[in-house]
Protein: Maltose/maltodextrin import ATP-binding protein MalK
Organism: Boseongicola aestuarii
Amino acid sequence: MAEVILKDLSKSFGNDVGIADLSMTIPDGAFVVLLGPTGAGKTTTLRLISGLEKADAGEVWIGGRNVGSETPAQRDVAMVFQQYSLYPHLSVRDNLAFPLKSPILNTPADEIERKVAEVASVLQISHKLDNKATALSGGEMQRVSIGRALVRDPSIYLMDEPLSSLDAKLRTDLRVELKRIQANLGATLLYVTHDQIEAMTMATHVGVLNEGRLVQYGTPREIYENPNSLYVASRLGLPRINIVPADVFGGMPSGVTQIGMRPEHIQQGEGQEAEVQRVEHLGDQARLHLMLKGHAITTIADPHTTYTPGAHIKIAPKNPLCFDAEGVRIS
Ligand SMILES: Nc1ncnc2c1ncn2[C@@H]1O[C@H](COP(=O)(O)OP(=O)(O)OP(=O)(O)O)[C@@H](O)[C@H]1O
């Protein structure tokens, strides 16, 4: 596996900015998750690293090589797309074996068989190895396309929402497996997701993109606990962080115009009186949806809470994040 360095990378499509001056180091063995809303430039970043797209400016370094003039094959990256891309006329076994049969790798037959069996087992598709790729459900096809990447030992795995088409149970299983595989192999991974739990549990690093720019890069905990802007604070956390004008609670230092409160950072029993709008019982906890001076606020409560809609509850922020009028974090 390898370290990947992006230096001042830019790519536009006509008037649309794909990526702007993106610099980022993906350490060898890191699991880096890219977060950002649609159009932020996540897929473009993966395509620039893989060589499917050519940068307007800047450099991509993989394992100490500037790969600007290399083809995708020479770059030795394994990419998994959101939508499966299989060879329909081949069996699942042959689809999985295909990357290992390339003349560059020249893998011995017994090694191919071992790897295919191992990956099929991890992805829970061993019983489908002799099926035609087309005789599979959508979720199974996606597992085969993940498997086609995992049989290889590339410089970096590039994955674009690989689990988004799977059902919840399989998604949870594969999330754990992917993380285990990455940790065991020491694999380097760049991974795009909109899924909060995937980002928090799998990533060693999270990069937050906004309109093609990297606006913060750090561990998931740093991004969650110490976001540098309101934009970044809103990217991680479910339920989302509550943002209210500073004067709703008052007592904030000058210059603070908005405060951010994670649902778990709201003190109950003191402060301003809010009205309960809705209570969601989730089993291990309850979510309270409150209204305070026209602002919707979500917080969490004991799973056996007896609050019902219409009840009143006093709340106060506990260590809120403070932002200025532009959304820049000021404390
Ligand atoms: N082939 C293309 N032709 C024209 N514009 C493109 C092309 N690829 C990307 N773009 C534009 O570049 C910007 C970034 O797109 P990109 O696909 O990288 O975003 P993304 O963060 O991956 O979004 P999503 O979450 O929807 O996949 C968008 O404005 C998009 O319209």
Observations:
- Residues 13, 16, 18, 36, 38-44 surround adenosine-5'-triphosphate (CB under 6 Å).
